[in-house]
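User: Predict the structure for this protein chain, please.
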Amino acid sequence: MSDPSGTPLPRDGGWAAYTDHSRRLSALLKDERARAERRAAASRDGLTAVDRLTHRVASQRQHLHQLAVTLRLPEPQVGGIAPGPISDPAEALRRAATAADAADAAAENAHRRAAQPPLLPGLTPLARNSLVYATAAILGSFASLLMFVISPDTNFGHIPWQLVPWSLCGLPALAFFAGYLTISLAGQPRIAGGGGTRSARAGGVICFVGMPILWFIFIAATRG
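Assistant: Here is the predicted structure, written as structure tokens:
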């Protein structure tokens, strides 16, 4: 028995072995094509992931430059990409994505902290400013009382009237401007739109009303 070309075909035992080897070869070729398709798909997915990561890093770089300008910090220096020791592309992409997530979290944390003032960031603006003005008023009151105590007129049992303008106007004004300057320098957020306020009206009440009241109470207590 022969095929149309005249080549003799193997007998039944040889034909069975031939067909068995053919099936095995076909299965191997099919598996190889499947592996090649999987490698091609993985390569395409890898290239897509690299493109996405490249665009993300470029956006992060631009965001960092803008954040540095907003926060009035030195411009960040971003160096080149050095080859790493990881040979598995999937693992390298996973670690790169993790690093990009960490960079985004750090930038968000920096932006959130910049939206709060350096001085007493946990307080509301009114509470923080009132505390600053009150501290300045207390220090001014101590200065006023110290001037009163060391005045020569006090030793003679007289009220040092020359100190009254300072105690009622001069020192309250100095305390107000000291508090206002402190809030302006350390009580304002470093980015625009952070809700910064100086509470000048509350500061005026604390300094120009509170300090004279304390002074009169002291005078009444010492003269009584």
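The chain has a mean pLDDT of 79.
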